[in-house]
Each structure stands twice: as C-alpha cells, then as structure tokens.
Design goal:
The complex is a heterodimer of chains A (269) and B (402).
Chain A lengths: L2 H11 L4 E7 L5 H13 L4 E5 L10 H12 L4 H11 L7 E4 L2 H7 L1 H11 L3 E3 L9 H9 L5 E2 L2 E2 L7 H5 L6 E4 L15 H11 L4 E4 L5 H7 L5 E4 L1 H11 L4 H20 L1
Parallel strand pairs in A: 1-2, 1-9, 2-3, 3-4, 4-5, 6-7, 7-8, 8-9
Chain B lengths: L14 E2 L2 E5 L2 H18 L2 H13 L7 E3 L1 H7 L3 E6 L9 H14 L4 E6 L3 H13 L2 E7 H6 L1 H9 L3 E5 L6 H14 L4 E4 L9 H9 L1 H14 L5 E5 L4 H7 L9 E7 L12 H4 L1 E5 L1 E6 L24 H8 L3 E6 L1 H15 L5 H8 L1 H4 L8 E6 L7 H9 L3
Parallel strand pairs in B: 4-14, 5-6, 5-8, 6-7, 9-10, 9-14, 10-13
Antiparallel strand pairs in B: 1-2, 2-12, 3-4, 11-12
Classes of the chains: A alpha/beta (269), B alpha/beta (402).
C-alpha cells in the first residue's frame, strides 16, 4: 500500500487526525533539513512536506519566500534534494511530499521527475501552479508508468463547481486551501470553511487536509474537526527563524520539536 | 475609427501553439474563467466597442498619427520610415489603450478595486489615470529598483491618487512586481480586478491585452493604405512582455509580405549575463501563469535580467510572440543599452522627438535594417512611448560615458 494512504488508514483506526508539517528543503542547509525531518516525525508529524525552493514562489507569503531565499543562497537544487531523500529513506518511512512549482518539474523533465520521485521514495507531489486544466500530461505519466507517487490536488474556497472534477480519481489526499491568499498566518478563518471542506469530502473518498494560515495551537483546535488532517508550514519556519541567528543546530531542532509537539497535543486533544 | 473591430479575430483558445496556458493557483481559476466569459461577451458587444473607442478618441487622443519621418528617412537614404506615434497618447505611451479596455471590463464585472504591476511606470500611470477618471481604487506594484529609476512616474501615479507599493522581494524589478500583484489578486480575488499591462500572464490575459492593443496595427494598416496605397515591408517594435509589438503585428500576421521584427533588450550584450533577451537566449518554461521563453538556469530558477529600459527588464516574453517566433512568422533581434541610447539621441536630434528608451530599442535596430532595404520599400517603427520619463536615466548614462 502507498505510504500516504496507509498513514491515513492507520490514523483512522486510531481515531486521529493527520499532522502534516512543511519545511523548505535546504533552509538553512540540507543537513539541517535531514535532521528536521526526523525531528518532525519524533514530535508527532504524520507526513512531511518538503518545499523545493523557487526564485518566484507566487503562492507563498513572506515567511516561505524568505526560507526559499535562504535555501537558494545555500545552493539547494532539486537534484540535491532527491539525493537527500534517498539517504533519508534509510532512516525513516514517514510519508514525504514535495511542494514544488511547475517550472522546476518541467526543467527536470516530467518523466524523469516522476521516475526519480518513485525511485527515492517521494510519496506525493503538490504543485501550486498546476491547476486541473494543466495537469493531464503529468497525471498520464504517473498512470502510464504505474508510479506510486500521488499528485495531490488543491481545492480552494473559490473552486465551487470545479471541486468534483479536481478530486475525481485523485489519490493521496486533497489539499483544501483554507482561504484566498498566499501561505502564511491568518488571524481568523471564515465561517464557511467548515462547509467548504464538508463539500470536498462529499465529492471524494480520499482524505482531506486543510492548509494555508494555520499557525497556532488555537487554530489547530479550531479546525481539527473539519478535516482529516491539518497542514502547518510558515509557523514552523518562523519558529526556526528565531534560532537561525544563533547558528545553534540543537537549539533549532529543540525549538521545532517543542512547537510541533504542542500542535500534536492540540490535534489529539 | 470605424475600421477597428474587436471581434473579427477567431475565437481564441488558451494556447498559442504550445505556448500560453493557465499555470496559476486554483484559487484564481474561476476568476480567470469569469474574466474569459466576460471578455467573450464584450468582444461581440457593439455598445462596449463604442464605449472603448469613445474613450480612446476623446480621452486618449486616438487615432495617433502615422508620421512620415522624412529626416530620419534622409539620414539612412533607403526605405521610407514611418513612425506610429503611440507617444502622443494621453499619458505618453501605448499602455493606455489596454488599460481603458480592461477598466471598462472591470466596471462591467462590478470590481471596485484595481491592481496593476508596472516596470517603467507607464502601465502604472495609465492604470492610475483611468482609475482616477472612473473613480476606482488603484494600487500599483513596482519593483524597488524601478521606483528609484522611474521616480517621475511614481510621483505621477501618486498625484493621480494611486498607491504605489514598492516591491523588495527577489530582484526588485518588474518580474517581482508581477509576483506581488498575483499574490494580491489571489488574496483579494473577490473584489479586485488585476489589470495586466502586457501580453503576458495566464490565459485569457495575453489575448485580452492583444485585442485592446491591436488598435495600433489596425490604425497603422488603414493609415499606410491611405498614404501609400500599399502595405509596409517591415514593422519594427520593441518587446519586453511585448504588448506594443503584438498590437502592431497582429493585424498584419496574415499579410505574409510584411516582415514583423521584434527587438529585445540586449542590455550589456548577449554574451554577458546582463540582458533581457528571452527569445535570443531563453528556454521554454513557466512563469506568471504562462508557458513561454524564459531566461532561467537549468534548475528552472528565473535569472536576474538587465536593460537600461525598465519596461523591457523582464525575463520572459508574451506567449503569442513565442509562438510567432517558433512558427517563423516574426523575427526577433536585439540591441544593447548603448545602441538604444544612440538611437534615443538620434531621434531627438533628427526628428525633434524624444522617444522612450523602450521605443529607442526599436529605432536602434534601423542601423542594421536600413542598409538592407530599398528606396521603394516602407518601414514602420512603433514609437510606443515618449522619453520624458527617461531623461534622468539618459543624463546619468551620459555622465558615466555609456
């Protein structure tokens, strides 16, 4: 069974929600990323999203933009991230998902990208600038090669009648964008979010997770019953940023561990 | 003006050959679908066309003249040179043509808040102008680098009541201003209309902008037929994103005797890393919602670009240009900062017209083109904008001895 599906099935049995955590690969360097993935798992993350840094991340807010800048300055490339994952797979079986902009997939080569994901053990791919209308070619490659990687679709509060087509035949989980806008903290969530996610869940049998703007224990508690999982990214990077100037690796790992543990507790409460 | 038809072009699809498309976050997809539907409606709506043409004629001063540049013609002593005087438009460039069309579209769609990106500031000024007239809120994203080198246009936008947001992310130029405008649109999509300033971005924008700019080519065609009773042999226009060139070229695409030449910015030279020649040096990729030629590295990171002209300082090119290039229908050449500056001075001295540095790129290519022409031929250069905004840049370049 594929890792993401197995993870959600396991969580369902335990009557738990999925904690999906995002970090930008190579921020501030790839060695830190490798350790962070293990830290996130220990702190209670169920799935880890690795952002591939891009020069023009138009779906991201300032926090993840900064992370991408730091990572690019450190010389991170997709090739190096694949190598990192290949090594990481000897140490963890946690489901790993890429958050990657389409141009990077295109330059790597669609076939090569999917094959390499499959080879190193990347379980899912989220491409924020690849909507329904443009995804056919990539989906056909995945299907044609019987690759295990899931193309995780995004649905937005503005998707309306598009939801059914977007989630049709989708695998992995559905990424529900909490509200219009880019990644990063929201002060509050719309009252319609619950209905929106419920509508998505009606349209598909695979799990649905909410992301964009979930930044605190309070927001985790508010949203946890709406969906099968919650995705937290910018808030984790902000925690990391607090320690970056000290250049203290164990402090960084500790801070992230503490924060993610608190999210886990909130999610399980 | 009656010869101008918005609706005669065949129904568009989202791609120009392989180029174009809609590579945007899902949040924007329904907004793009609505925009396309609304545009399809107005395209065949006589009332809308009359309103658009009314403002272009009475507010912007169209039709702009097709001026026989006799002195410049004598200077080269080859083909006859005509200048399409888009510099005579209200606000000083062709950008207003597109803005009037899109703002009328935004009004029809009930949008009260307008955002735009701008490089040189001409599109920002045009948008601020139309928003002032139509009573709409206007915010313009502009790279911090461009805010510095185009201070006059920043002041003009603010005078017109627009808020100028200085963008410091990335390379702090047009590409980053576009990123930031898209981020704003993703956030405020319910009440905000994004007026894209060039034939770039996700479908349907490249088509919408072309249709609102094709008035340049439609007028040129009617004017040259009246003056010369024949079509021109060459059309020359500068290309950043490519809206003035697309507007000029489009009505002539089916006229195979007319050579279409787009002039890219070669900055310090194509053999350096500091240029903005996406067709000459780019590879196919996706940026700002479109598949097109981009200046990027092998990992798909967009490269910093350079041109002395802020309006050409963009790492991509409109997808329809990419298509015309690949199909071999238009040819794309480039000129350096230095060549553009020389042309800037030449036109100022010879014709008493100070061109925008963008337009000076098109004029600079005459140095290569004219010796190859014959006296019985006709060259039309799109003089896309006037150069007042650039005098500080040019003065500085002169001081530095460029």
């Amino acid at each position: 069974m594929k890792r993401i599906a197995a993870k959600f099935e396991d969580l369902k049995k335990k009557q738990k929600k999925a904690l999906i955590t995002y970090i930008t690969a190579g921020d501030p360097d790839l060695a830190t990323t490798a350790e962070l993935v293990l830290t996130l798992e220990k702190a209670g993350a169920d799935i880890v999203e690795l952002g591939i840094p891009f020069s023009d991340p138009l779906a991201d807010g300032p926090v993840i933009q900064r992370a991408a800048q730091r990572s690019l300055q450190a010389g991170t490339t997709l090739r190096k991230v694949f190598e990192l994952v290949e090594k990481l797979r000897k140490r963890t079986q946690i489901p790993l998902v890429f958050l990657i902009y389409y141009n990077q997939v295109l330059q790597f080569g669609l076939n090569e990208f999917v094959a390499r994901c499959d080879q190193v053990g990347i379980d899912g791919v989220i491409i924020p600038d690849l909507p329904l209308e443009e995804r056919t070619e990539l989906l056909e490659i995945i299907k044609g090669g019987n690759y295990l990687v899931d193309l995780i679709p995004l649905v937005a509060p503005t998707s309306d009648q598009r939801v059914a087509s977007i989630v049709n035949n989708a695998t992995g989980f559905v990424y529900c964008v909490s509200s219009t806008g880019v990644t990063g903290q929201r002060d509050s969530f719309s009252a319609e979010l619950q209905d929106f996610v419920a509508k998505v869940k009606e349209a598909t049998d695979i799990p649905a997770a909410i992301g964009f703007g979930i930044s605190s224990v309070a927001s985790v508690k508010q949203l946890k019953d709406y969906a099968d999982g919650l995705i937290i990214g910018s808030a984790i990077i902000k925690e990391m940023e607090e320690t970056l100037n000290d250049n203290n690796q164990s402090q960084l790992q500790k801070q992230v561990h503490q924060f993610v543990s608190s999210l886990r507790q909130a999610l399980d409460s | 003006m009656s010869g101008v038809k918005l609706s005669e072009a065949k129904k568009f699809v989202g791609r120009f050959g392989e180029f174009g498309g809609q590579f945007v976050p899902e949040t924007l997809m329904n907004a793009l679908i609505e925009l396309e539907a609304e545009f399809e409606k107005v395209r065949d709506d006589q009332q809308f066309r009359l309103e658009y043409l009314y403002y272009l004629e009475h507010y912007c001063g169209r039709p702009t003249s097709l001026y026989f540049a006799e002195n410049l013609t004598n200077y080269y002593n080859k083909a006859k040179i005509y200048l399409k005087r888009e510099d005579l438009n209200h606000t000083g460039a062709h950008k207003i043509n597109n803005v009037i069309g899109q703002i009328l579209l935004a009004k029809r769609m009930g949008k009260k808040r307008i955002i735009a990106e701008t490089g040189a500031g001409q599109h920002g000024v045009a948008t601020a102008t139309a928003c002032a007239m139509f009573g709409l809120d206007c915010e313009v994203y502009m790279g911090a680098e461009d805010v510095k080198r185009q201070a006059l246009n920043v002041f003009r936008m603010e005078l017109l009541g627009a808020k100028v947001i200085s963008v410091t992310s990335g390379t702090a130029t047009l590409k980053d201003a576009t990123n930031e405008a898209i981020r704003d649109w993703v956030t405020n999509v319910a009440d905000t209309y994004y007026v894209i300033g060039s034939v770039v971005g996700p479908h349907p924008y490249p088509t919408i902008v072309r249709e609102f700019q094709r008035i340049i080519g439609d007028e040129t065609k009617a004017q040259i037929l009246e003056k010369e009773d024949r079509l021109p042999d060459y059309l020359v226009a500068c290309v950043g994103g490519g809206s003035n060139a697309m507007g000029m070229f489009y009505p002539f695409v089916a006229d195979s005797s007319v050579q279409l030449i787009g002039v890219e910015a070669a900055g310090f030279g194509l053999d350096t890393k500091q240029h903005a020649a996406a067709i000459a040096k780019g590879t196919v990729g996706v940026l700002h919602g479109m598949l097109t030629y981009l200046l990027q590295d092998e990992d798909g990171q967009i490269l910093p670009v350079h041109s002395i002209s802020a309006g050409l300082d963009y790492p991509g090119i409109g997808p329809e240009h990419a298509y015309l290039h690949k199909a071999g229908r238009a040819s794309y050449v480039s000129v350096t900062d230095q060549q553009a500056l020389a042309a800037f001075h030449r036109l100022s001295n010879v014709e008493g017209i100070i061109p925008a540095l963008e337009s000076a790129h098109a004029l600079a290519y005459l140095e290569d083109l004219m010796p190859k022409t014959r006296k019985d031929q006709i060259v039309v250069v799109n003089l896309s904008g006037r150069g007042d905004k650039d005098v500080h840049t040019v003065a500085k370049a002169m001081e530095e001895g460029i």
